[in-house]
Description:
- By secondary structure, the protein is mostly beta strands.
- It is built from 2 helices and 16 strands.
- The protein has helices at residues 11-18, 199-204; strands at 63-66, 73-74, 80-82, 93-95, 102-104, 108-109, 117-124, 131-140, 148-155, 163-171, 177-187, 192-197, 209-215, 224-225, 227-229, 237-240.
Amino acid sequence: MALPDSGAIKLSEIASQYGGSAPHSLKDYYRNGTEGVPDTVTTANIPTSGEIGLKDFYGSSESNNRDIRVWMSYQFNENGFGVTSQSSTAAPSSISAVANAVAWQPVFRAGLGYITSASISISQNEDTSAYSNNVVLYGGTSDSAVTNVVAAWNAGSSGSTGGARGYSISWNNDGTINSITNTSNTYNYGIIVWATDNVSTANSNGYTWFGFKVTNPPSFSKGSRVLGGTFYSSSSVPQPT
């Protein structure tokens, strides 16, 4: 849990957050100093040298690596993977990849020291039912409220050829989104449509926590992985404690 954003703060609370051996000195807690305060967006106000005060630590937190993987597949010889509820920081696990199955991503903090770039691929095979919101990116201002739609994709139906689109996502150091860019298109990529774009609203509202929801189609005859890319393999990512 992060240190308080205002009010009284004690050196003992800082030591509890960042560790270290007694007797504690505030100058042990320079950013990336003796006690290893990490260089992240939440510690940006903590100096690396010189004058340092208790108020420099408002809202800051230690970071630990966390598994934020997510995917969902249909008839592709693999189960889905993720969590079963929204706004969860729990460890992901296997999810049965049946029709209409849903995998939520463990939510993550974006920004300096956390995640600043990612790539995703969104696929839809032929002979598969069209459906809306097969991939949705949610955002919010805390890990417990990642409930607002930032971007959503729909998958169309084709009886001849499947298709896929690839996107690059970049975040600013403060954790807001810099851009979501279409970087690749494969086969009948027109059946993947970026249907909802609320990126500007997300940035104006200060969303810095994010997570994907991935849903399988209601019916299918040929298999595909709905969502792939960075979050298919991101098993050890620094995140706030």
